């Protein structure tokens, strides 16, 4: 799973990277929101963790951009200055989580694990749905072939017995 980390606080980014390195998640860290969004568009991250207070673009704007480009990406907002307005906006914009600094890094890693597990389940479900669609298509084709065979057989049998359709 690929994670984009965005925070203008270098120490916060460093602690996030240190906590996430052993997990196996591929992390890209940025301090500049414009650069981060450019990288997001290029690499299609699965999860974005962004501070709300950023220079030039806030975390809610990042959330809206990410959602407009790829609805499947989960966005986790983090802040050292929690307020009701930003929390409500985060919920309204379908943020995965709204966390207050200092972060519980174990909780954050658990969120990533949950997201990864949900992705695996969704992928498995999509794969099963595709298999079922293919099987239904195969069965429909067999049904049509059998129907045509029965129509032909019934029509030929009726002609041999002197029965004609009207």
End-to-end Cα distance, whole Å, is: 67 Å
* Largest sheet: number of strands, sense, barrel closure: 5 strands, parallel
Instruction: Name the helicity range.
Output: 55-70%
Mean pLDDT: 92
Q: What is the level 1 CATH name? A: Alpha Beta
In CATH terms, what is the architecture? 3-Layer(aba) Sandwich
What is the CATH third-level topology name? Rossmann fold
Shape: elongated
Low-confidence stretches: none
Kindly name the structural category.
alpha/beta
- Number of strand segments: 5
Spatial extent as radius of gyration:
27 Å
What's the structural domain tally?
1
What amount of the residues lies in strands?
15-25%
Query: Superfamily at the CATH H level?
Result: Response regulator
Helix count, DSSP H or I runs of 4 or more residues: 5
Note the run of SSEs as H and E: EHEHEHEHEH
Strand order of the largest sheet: 2-1-3-4-5
Notes on the protein architecture:
The protein is α/β, with parallel strands linked by helices and 166 residues long. It has one domain (2-123): Response regulator (Rossmann fold). Helices cover 59% and strands 15% of the residues. It contains five helices and five strands, in the order E-H-E-H-E-H-E-H-E-H. The chain has a five-stranded parallel sheet, with helices on both faces. The longest helix is centred in the C-terminal third of the chain and has 56 residues, at 105-160.
